[in-house]
Amino acid sequence: MSLRTIILAAGQGTRMRSALPKVLHPLAGRPLLAHVLDTAAALEPDGVLVVHGHGGEQVKAAFAGRPIDWVLQAEQRGTGHAVQQALPKVSAGDIVLVLCGDVPLVRPETLRPLVEAAGHHGLALLTTRVANPAGYGRIIRGIDGAVTAIVEHADASTAQRAIDEINTGLLACEAGRLGTWLGQLDTDNAQGELYLTDIVELAVADGVQVAAIEAPDPDEVMGINDKLHLATAEAVLRRRVAAELMRAGVTLADPERIDVRGRLRCGRDVRIEPDVIFEGEVELGDDVVIGPFTLVRDARIAAGTHVQSHSVIEQAEIGERCEIGPFARIRPGVEMDEGAKVGNFVEIKKSVIGPGSKVNHLSYVGDATIGAKVNVGAGTITCNYDGANKHRTVIGDGAFIGSGVELVAPVEIGAGATIGAGSTISKAAPAGELTVARARQATISGWKRPTKKA
Ligand code: UD1
Ligand code: CA
Question: Beta strand pairing status for 328-330 and 312-314?
């Protein structure tokens, strides 16, 4: 038996009130459809078909390179019609799993029994119970409890509208029979559409006992129709990720105030303060502490490093026992070696900060290679850009750069050199010597301040 997944994603998503196609709206930093694709992939299907329509080219471009068989539904004539478009690419005997591009939180564990049940029964529905079923298709059961039909909200009687068991829109079905039933659909309903849900009645008429698998958690099968739903889903996902982190031993000061937009891997005894955002791939070693209001994007932070509040770290490699922040900005291409320190209001870009070196206050370090145990004084600036090209600054081990120094690159400071405060260094400063490049201080004794003319 081979498994094919069809993801319905042709709808317009009018209620998002956005120029962006609905399935491209980000949830935890990734498009809605990406979540559904990942869930589908976890089931290891023999193929994934995505039915697209509205904003089709934009949607396709966003997933270029992924193994997707795209199917165009030029006109949105209903969910049944959408599945019909994909069916020619599926063989009879296959199990078809229908997912929705706007139902992003469903987990593979919930879908596996659905696929299995479809293998036994021919048709299996994923249902759930909700406090407010308005808008959803209702699951109709006979007196023996067997599912007999799905009735859409718009077509439902008052009595049917009282039913709280709803259709999640996700189902699994044997492809041959699905084709037969889809061929029998009509548009004789309140919305004038070909309803996928009408296959239930047709299956029952064919003597098929339709399986209904109830998703234990209605949050998992929520559909995203507007920005309110999107924010609700974001909160659900946040709780899910926070729970996973805490189960893995991470201390979260407030599990409601962490955003993981990508993948976060943590060692032992990691502590994360409130309002921290992680984006892309982030790895934190043992005993790392991330202070509040910090953003970490695509970075590796090794064991024992402390990042204090309001810091931004992006595409950087931070060694063991470093100290960063508060208010530090570590930009792409930075490597901080063991025990290095970058303090407040310091910006570092494309530079190596050697082991034990310190850039503690109000500095800009760009395109620099700083050796071991270097002290960069407050307010030091690497003048790396001449208006056309970028140039490197190289500082040898054990150098001491006084406060307020301008290093006009390309320039080299030798090992153990000392640079006097306030110097503008534009030529190599030799190792082990004191170099000062500033106007000498002079005192004019007896000088009088001008006085106002009478
Ligand atoms: C559908 C179900 C309903 C269920 C609800 C759960 C039908 C008839 N109804 O209703 O029983 O309770 O989902 O959320 O199936 N789509 C297409 N092409 C189309 C129409 C829809 O690709 O022509 C896609 C949409 O992009 C969306 C999905 O199918 O991803 C569901 O469509 P939607 O219009 O949201 O269906 P509902 O009316 O919510
Ligand atoms: Ca919907």
Answer: parallel
- For ligand 1, residues with CB inside 6 Å are 8-11, 51, 73, 76-79, 81-82, 100-102, 136-137, 150, 152, 166-169, 195-197, 223
pLDDT digits (tens, 9 = 90+) for 119-151: 999 999 999 999 999 999 999 999 999 999 999
Active-site annotation holds for 361: yes
Phi then psi dihedrals of residue 135, to 5 deg? 95, -25
The dotted CATH code for 3-221 is 3.90.550.10
Residues contacting 100, CB < 8 A, separation 6+: 7, 8, 9, 36, 169, 170, 223
- Domain locations in the chain as residue ranges: 3-221, 227-435
Homologous superfamily (CATH) of 227-435 is Hexapeptide repeat proteins (2.160.10.10)
* Per-residue burial over 95-122, b = 16 or more CB atoms within 10 Å of its CB, e = otherwise: bbbbbbbbbbbbeeebbeebbebbeebb
Give the residue, by CA position, lying nearest to ligand 1 atom 22: 10
Two domains, one topology: 3-221 and 227-435: no
> pLDDT tens across 24-41, in order?
999 999 999 999 999 999
Ligand 2 centroid to residue 240 C-alpha, Å: 23
- Most informative mutation of 73, 79, 128 for ligand 1 (most atoms within 8 A of CB): 79
- In this prediction the pTM is 0.90
Nearest CA to ligand 1 atom 34: 11
**Active-site residue (options: 153, 310, 361, 391):** 361
For the chain, 454 residues long, the average pLDDT of each consecutive 10-residue run is 94 91 95 97 96 90 94 95 97 96 97 96 96 94 97 97 97 97 96 97 97 94 95 96 98 97 97 98 98 98 98 98 98 98 98 98 98 98 96 98 98 98 98 96 96 91
Structure tokens at 329: 């900005």
Q: Could you tell me the distance, in angstroms and rounded to a whole number, from the CA of residue 189 to the centre of ligand 1?
A: 14
